[in-house]
Amino acid sequence: MEDLSYRHIARQRAGGTRKIAVIGVVASGNLEVLAERNLPDAECLVEIKTAAEGFGEVWNAVIADFVERHSPGGVRFSINDGGARPDTVSLRLAQAARLMQEDDQ
Amino acid sequence: MSAGQTAKASPDRTGSWYEASARTRVRLLLDPGSFEEFIGPEQREISPHLKVFGLPEQFDDGIVVGRGLLDGAPVFVAAQEGRFMGGAFGEVHGAKLTGLLRAARDLKSISVLLLLDTGGVRLQEANAGELAIAEIMRAVIEARTAGVKVVGLIGGRSGCYGGGGLIAGCCSALAVSEQGRIAVSGPEVIETNRGVEEFDSRDRALVWRTMGGKHRRLLGGAELFSDDTVQGFRDAALDLLGSVADFGLDTLKAEQARLEDRLQRFGACPDAIDIWTAEGIADAASVPALPADQFIALADQVRRTSRDAR
């Protein structure tokens, strides 16, 4: 297992009022993303636990791209990875960001 | 956990139960926006054992537990995620379900829905998992003794195997879809232990007609058969919660008599098709291919579900 952590400055705060969202399942080639709105508005933190070691460079690129596209300021993302491909990771992160933009009930 | 639904309008329940995640099943099964999770993923109550094996954890350890409303009535609900480690029972996973059942036992008045989707005990934490199964079986019986209805809904990709099959056997009633296989030993386990002549695990048609939902319904192991939709399982849950008899010594005696009768009538049958023929189904070989609505009509004809046993 490898633990990775990426901290970014986001252009703006993530929209919506939702405090928490979870998407995906830890299975082969899949991952779960837990999003929590508990950081200062300009910060974004992505923490990863992955069974596939040695892919830090790829994670770095995927997450930098995600933060640039979605600007999820104020949100901490925690990932449990079951060896997902980069496109699946991007999709799950986008789904999590989308869920956080909904208004809490 | 919020359900992520901004509107309170009736959700689309026509989707597949089999394909849905545990969280989606719970969200769509219950009244919109009513689900409140206990020990949610943000609390990170993960398995203490998986890290030792270099295996990834899941924040809810593969089971969602909480409370909500079903057609306005409060229910406790537990849903296993069959895609995470085959929905298998580990220490934390099992403890969450045991705790839910004990809460139901203490409160006496709130029914429990178990959305089982499991291969049994998680091998990496086998002792803890086996203990969890025993604790859950005891908790189901204690809850039922206290007057709580415990209804199992089975239609997930992992089926309901191993200790999950034992827990299902302890429930007040079960609803199953065609995909929801119920057994203790799985096909490969039987073949490994007893030989391919006893059970050929690669013969998928044999597996489905021996362990699949249609056979379980016709044999009386499951009270209701549901189409593979969330609406089907919601209707089945409401039906069963409204019709389950009280639990007591008479129930157990009736169940014992039912099982003895079953063994006497079908014990010599070599295949499920022989059992269906013995039950009076004219074209038993056609049963596996029947659409859900036709099968439900047929099942209601040949076997009225006994509501005084279990």
From TrEMBL, chain A:
InterPro entries per record: Mal_deCO2ase/Cit_lyase_ACP, Malonate_deCO2ase_dsu
Keyword field contains Cytoplasm: yes
Database matches in Pfam families: ACP
One cellular component term from this protein's GO annotations in UniProt: cytoplasm
Alphabetical keyword list: Cytoplasm, Phosphoprotein
Modification type O-(phosphoribosyl dephospho-coenzyme A)serine: residues: 28
Transmembrane segments: none
Protein's name according to its UniProt entry: Malonate decarboxylase acyl carrier protein
Post-translational modification comment from the UniProt entry: Covalently binds the prosthetic group of malonate decarboxylase.
UniProtKB/TrEMBL annotation, chain B:
GO CC, any one term: acetyl-CoA carboxylase complex
GO molecular function: acetyl-CoA carboxylase activity; carboxy-lyase activity; transferase activity
Keyword set includes Zinc-finger: no
Keywords: Transferase
GO biological process, one term: carbohydrate metabolic process
Domain CoA carboxyltransferase N-terminal per the UniProt entry, residue ranges: 1-249
A Pfam family it matches: Carboxyl_trans
Tree of life domain: Bacteria
NCBIfam families linked: malonate_beta, PRK07189.1
Name the UniProt record assigns to this protein: Biotin-independent malonate decarboxylase subunit beta
Protein source organism: Bosea caraganae
